[in-house]
Amino acid sequence: MPGPMGGGPMRGNKTKATQEKAKNFKGTIKKLFKSYLAKYKWQLLVVIIFAIAGTIFNIVGPKVLGNATTEIYQGLVSKVSGGEGINFGKIAEILIQLLILYVISMCFSAIEGITMSRVCQKIAYKIRNDLVHKINNLPMKYFDKRTNGEVLSIITNDIDMLSSNLDQSITQIITSICTIIGILIMMLSISWQMTLVSVCILPITIFSVGFIVKKSQKYFKAQQDYLGHVNGKVEETYGGHVIIKAFNSEEKTIAEFKEQNDTLYNVGWKSQFLSGLMHPIMNFLGNVSYVAIAILGGYYAIKGRITVGNIQSFIQYSKQFNQPIAQVAQISGTLQLMAAAAERIFEFLEEDDEKERIDNAKSVKDLDGSIEFKNVKFGYDEDKIIINDFSAKVKDGQKVAIVGPTGAGKTTMVKLLMRFYDINDGAIYIDGNNIADYNRGELRTLFGMVLQDTWLFNGTIKDNIKYGKPDATDNEVVEAAKAAHIHHFIKTLPNGYNMVLNEETSNISAGQKQLLTIARVILADPKILILDEATSSIDTRTELQIQSAMDNLMKGRTSFIIAHRLSTIKNADLILVMQHGDIVEQGNHEELLAKNGEYAKLYNSQFEDCVDEA
């Protein structure tokens, strides 16, 4: 079958803006752990253990290096006093210990990073599969109220944001907390007085970092939003470049793009400027701390209360102490964005599924195809009814045409027949059985559809024709193509039936696409046909050939034809004339013309148009 049908309520043009914060941060994080992270608890335990171990070995390094500094200092003092001087053997021993510590720390960090990356990729893989599965189980009404961009953003942007930020956040949180605690312990082991001086700078650092993060976060959010607008504008311009040139709208398009690009530039430089302030401020506060520590450390060294190596170690620890604090501040914003992405994913996954299967469902085998619409009432929104009281009986094998002005509800009736939507009131019967008593998937096997908007996928012509019947033989594919009068054209193509259609299927014409979709339905050999403006993209000469093929195809099958060109449905067994969701007339062509009602007005207006053109 072809892809999604046209019609339905109008949808918005803008995608939902990325939220800055999750509505329920704790609940979302808890749900994320329970639904996905809990399955990898042992891997996460390995990540935590190795992250802690790697951090510990890394923290011990400056203290060991301080011992080497002390040894060099004492050796120099000894040399001046006439002693043995520097003990290079002991220094080499200390440096070897230091090298071993850093190698072990590197190995632990590498194992932790690889493990966490694999876990995050598996989670992203699982979520992506869940989302795709969910899409195929959502009711059509869900997509009527959302743009394709919104759904696509969840599957791409939100998953990527969740995966990358989860990978960075968990490891950074663990290492930052371990680093802060470990460095604090090491500094206290050297001098509690110098530690107190270093910690006094901490509140100012935290306040400064928090203030900058808070101010810059809104600009980062705006930058992300306007980046989406700019990308959307580029995509829109590329997709409609022919229309833009046809209406000489290049300057207008450039001006609109410039306006959005200017906005993106303004929020971009502000976000980067504020973010760039963090390091200079941190460096300044760090330097103030270094000066205070150097003065106090020098005083204690003169008094003999601390060694030179310990002063050097302490200064290193003091320098490292501010980094994890800044990381924690940045992670808080990252976690909010990650939680917001996860929240949107869970909201999508928790949408109500379309009930696919029912208990004690009836079988669609051996159905003939007689259909009855009985007092059908329907609205895409319950408070906006568009089908008021639709009743009609269609006998097995009849060719039924549905005509009427745009918005009369023609395509909607077909959607209801295939249970893309459930009716508000009334019933639809097939061979006397309510369609609600069948499983949706099995019910839809009865139908073959050719739509006005053709849908073909990136693949070979043969695979596109076989879409409704994957097990068809090559001979069956060829026969279906011949019946649709497309075989000769296919044979002229490079590689024939194995020619690959590109993603936009722009390497064949609109009429040829329509012929391929007709061949696809012919091959599927359904019991009930639905033709929604099936020949709208085909020239008059080809239309006559197709009409002949479709007449043969419709023999013995119940067929619904939706058409604006009334000349294509003259020989229909039953014509239903719709207006505002109701049948205002029904009968065959001659009967309706004789009534001189709505159908006659429609037919005569088209005939007059043809005379005017002639």
Written description of the protein model:
With 614 residues, this protein is an alpha/beta fold. It has 19 helices and twelve strands. A hairpin with an 8-residue loop joins β1 (371-378) and β2. The longest helix has 53 residues, at 250-302. The radius of gyration is 36 Å and the shape is elongated.
Structural class by sheet pairing and helices: alpha/beta
- The N- to C-terminal Cα distance equals 38 Å
**Biggest β-sheet strands, sense, barrel:** 6 strands, mixed
On the 0 to 100 scale, the average pLDDT is 79
Low-confidence stretches: 1-20, 609-614
Shape: elongated
Residues in helices, as a percent range: 55-70%
The DSSP helix count reads 19
Order of strands, widest sheet: 6-9-10-3-11-12
Radius of gyration: 36 Å
How many beta-strand runs?
12
Strand content: 5-15%
Brief digest:
With 614 residues, this protein is an alpha/beta fold. It contains 19 helices and twelve strands.
